[in-house]
Amino acid sequence: MDVVPERQVEEGEEGLRHSRQSSAARFLRRLILVVLVVLIAPYLLILLYTPPFVHPVSTLMLADLALLRGYERRWVALEDISPNLVRSVMMSEDGQFCRHSGVDWGEMKAVVQEALEGEATRGASTIPMQTAKNLFLWNGRSFVRKGLEMPLAIAADFFWSKRRLMEIYLNIVEWGPGIYGAEAAARHHFGVSAKDLSRRQAALLAVALPNPITRVAGKPGRGMQRLAGVVERRARNSRDYVTCIYQ
Fold first, then answer.
1. Smaller CB count within 10 Å for the chain: N or C?
2. pLDDT tens-place string over residues 175-231
3. What's the gap between Cα 128 and its chain centre?
4. Where are the alpha helices (DSSP H) in 49-181?
5. Is the CA virtual torsion 96, 197, 231, 117 positive or negative?
6. Do 129 and 102 contact (CB within 8 A), yes or no?
7. Which tens digits make up the pLDDT trace of 116-158?
8. CA-to-CA distance for 155 and 143, rounded, in angstroms?
9. Residue 138 CB contacts under 8 Å (≥ 6 apart), including other chains
10. pLDDT band at 233 (very low <50, low <70, confident <90, very high)
11. Three-class SS of residue 208?
């Protein structure tokens, strides 16, 4: 009996299996390489964004461009943004901005404890964390995003000065559909430049930040006005809390 054809069939099947395994291994290696590049790229961009002449764009801006919606953003230096807005945003969003190193671990611990106890949790994002999210990640709550966000915030706080961090944040944060940054927001909502914002206008912009789509700074309801009054008072008394920005 001739067994050569049978042997050839077995060798062919073995070669096919080997080819499939090799293809799967190559695909896996490429996938791992892509994941590593995606994970490392933001840290390289943090270094790239350090010089003041670099004007970063956020993932939301890129999404608007990709969807052919466009966006409005006029980059301005921190010196050309009213201190009223800087103080209001800091006291509304991150009162310990000058004291932590990217993550407010005390606040984070309290939020984790509330979650473990089954209570409704409040936000614990710092300005560096929000900056990292806006620049490199996506909206929406998830443990994956938070896990990526925290080390990026620590890296940004390490490589950037507090002034640079605040400057980038105030130039990329969203203040309405397609409205990004303090200058575009000030002109859109109040018809003034960012450097001319009053205390109440600045407080309204700060209060709008948690949800700038439903909270319209230029058309505040009674609830927004009440919250803006609280933020305005805190900003007026901020003094020691803003020493990393204003000595």
1. N
2. 999 999 999 999 999 999 999 999 999 999 999 998 999 999 999 999 999 999 999
3. 8
4. 59-66, 83-93, 105-116, 127-136, 143-159, 162-172
5. negative
6. yes
7. 655 544 567 899 999 999 999 988 777 888 889 999 999 999 9
8. 19
9. 59, 145
10. very high
11. helix
Query: Residues 6 or more apart from 205 whose CB is under 8 A from it?
Result: 85, 88, 89, 175, 182, 185, 186, 189, 197, 217
Distance from chain centroid for Cα 94 = 14
Find the distance separating the first CA and the last CA of the chain, reported in whole Å: 96
Residues 6 or more apart whose CB falls under 8 angstroms from that of 157 comprise 100, 101, 102, 128, 165
Residue linked to tokens 């575009």: 184
* Both structure tokens of 68: 């052919």
SS3 content of the chain, % helix, strand, coil (to 5): 65, 0, 35
Angstrom distance (rounded) from CA 155 to CA 150: 9
Is the pTM above the cut of 0.90? Answer: no
